[in-house]
Amino acid sequence: MSPAHSPIKGIALGFLAYFLFSCSDANVKALGGQLPVFEIGFFSTLFAALVLLFLRPRDERWRDAILVHRPGLVALRGLTGAAAGILGIYAFTTLPFAEAYALIFLSPSIATILSIFILSEQVGWRRWLAVALGFGGVLAIVRPGFETLGLGHLAAFAVSFCAAGTVIILRTLGQTERRVSLLAAVILTSLLMNGVLMLKGFRWPVLEDLPYLIAAGVFAGTAQLCLILATHSAPANRVAPAQYSQMVWAIVIGGLFFAEFPDLPAIIGMCLIGISGLFTFLREETKGRWWSRTILQRDRV
């Protein structure tokens, strides 16, 4: 096996990518209260786009981004990605780091439910059990009646819905669209939405904000590049489970930099959500379905 097609290299790059995504999200969280959500979204996306523009893989050509077969669905994919970015920034800046990740990672369970109504799929009892585990994990984390359910929680839930919607869109698109087209759709839509929404009350970031904005974008852009390289070296379904390492990084980064330490019920809830997502992934991988296509990109670029 050639080094260029090494599963170990691909899996390692996948873990590196999701670590870098977590670093990007941590810099976004550090900006909470310093800048409006839309300004954080615009500038971090801009810096991420610059990284991808100059460090793109050799077989990716940006001019191919306009060659789409189903422009309506590609535009909708851009919209779900941009919305996930905005809502994700709000969630990270208002919730404990690990808690936000746990709620966002509910997306596989939501995708399972949406597939019944939108794609008319049959869902067996094992996948329903995974869905129940996921929602049980959410109850363990938010504990309605014991803690206040705030807008940050609702934003994180909405991110998981957007991510689930992206899964459904990508399943509908199949293999008809280029990866560069789907990625460009998210970047351009995010820049446009955040750029328009940030105009009201806009103020230029102060010098102290710039390192965080640059780091958030550079980490996210480099992570996206690592994901692309990872799936060049290993099958995408080998790389996909690495995303759940973000649960661990969320706890570590939250504790080290934000003095956030989840209690035992929250940790149990995170584990339940992780088990639910991994089980869903394994079931879909066995059927040769959509995960390989989905993990090539991450929302909240």
Mean pLDDT: 83
Beta strand count: 0
How many separate structural domains?
A: 1
Helix content percent band: over 70%
The count of helical stretches stands at: 13
What best-fitting shape do the alpha-carbon axes yield?
globular
The N- and C-terminal alpha carbons lie at a distance of 32 Å
Task: Report the sheet-strand fraction.
Answer: under 5%
Unreliable sequence segments = 288-296
Output the radius of gyration. 18 Å
How do the SSEs run, as a string of H and E? HHHHHHHHHHHHH
Computed structural class: mainly alpha
Major sheet description: none
Keywords, separated by commas or semicolons:
single chain, 301 residues, mainly alpha, globular
Protein architecture, described:
This protein has 301 residues and is mostly helical. The chain has one domain. Helices cover 71% and strands 0% of the residues. It contains 13 helices and no strands. The protein has helices at 7-30, 37-54, 71-94, 97-104, 107-118, 125-142, 151-173, 179-197, 210-233, 236-239, 245-258, 264-286, 291-294. Helix 3 runs antiparallel to helix 7. The longest helix is centred in the first third of the chain and has 24 residues, at 7-30. The radius of gyration is 18 Å and the shape is globular. It starts with 6 loop residues before the first helix and ends in a 7-residue tail after the last helix. Residues 288-296 have low confidence and may be disordered.
